[in-house]
Amino acid sequence: MSESGGPQTIKAFEDRLLEVSGSLPKRLRQCADYVAANKDRIAVSTVAEMADGAGVQPSAFMRFCQIMGFTGFSEMQKLFRESFVGGWPDYSTRLQHLREKAEGSPSALLAEFVEAGRLSLENLAKTVDSQAMEVAVKQLSEARMIHIIGLRRSFPVASYMAYAFEKMGVPAMLHSVVGRLDNHHAIREGDALLAITFSPYSAETLELVEQVRARGIPVVAVTDTVVSPLRRMGATLLSVSEVDFGAFRSLSATLCLAITLSVAVGTARQDG
Questions:
Q1: Of 95, 124, 142, 155, whose CA–CA distance to 260 is shortest?
Q2: Domain annotation for the chain: domains and CATH numbers
Q3: Is the C-alpha dihedral spanning 185, 186, 191, 195 positive or negative?
Q4: Of all helices (H) and strands (E), which one includes residue 48?
């Protein structure tokens, strides 16, 4: 248990970060923004490295840790070292956890993932921001071309939405950054970007979002937490969280949100 009474779970940490971010002075806000975008680095970095990344002195970063409720950086780092966020164990370790718990039979796995999916979908129905959904549908349905990016774990969602838009006759382009070609010059005035990324956030996705937002192009982002770095970039945020089993996360709620968004955009374009 935290000696200082600071956050004791990653969810509590994120809630606290969101609570304090808006009222922080410039230097401490830099710390908050850097931590929100780089939570995966906390467990493996020194306070000097985190401070350098945030562009502040180590003393300012230590002050930020105290505002977050910790006695110092080492206590905050301990929370992340004991958690799987942004640095979830590799797949062999996850499988080992399942074997140790004797939870690896096909029927048991099916039951557990069905339950995780059910809980994820119920949570989505309760927490989805309907106003943000309306804004997102408007931005995408009015776009000349919808550009879609989602890498690694997010790629199945991005490719599915590109497929759905194609079938509905909605002009869309899937960006895969193959060969480090991000095709950002293909995004023109009147277009919109749909970015999908989850912690640890894809650097390529964040870079593309930053580039197009600087040009005033609207961005709709499907992401996992309200403290996602995409928020400070001015994207329209649609947050979705997945309940995990054995440190494995499915895409049940994310794909549900994806098809909802796709169909809503296709319908809006037909009505328009």
A1: 124
A2: 10-81 (1.10.10.10), 120-271 (3.40.50.10490)
A3: negative
A4: helix 47-54
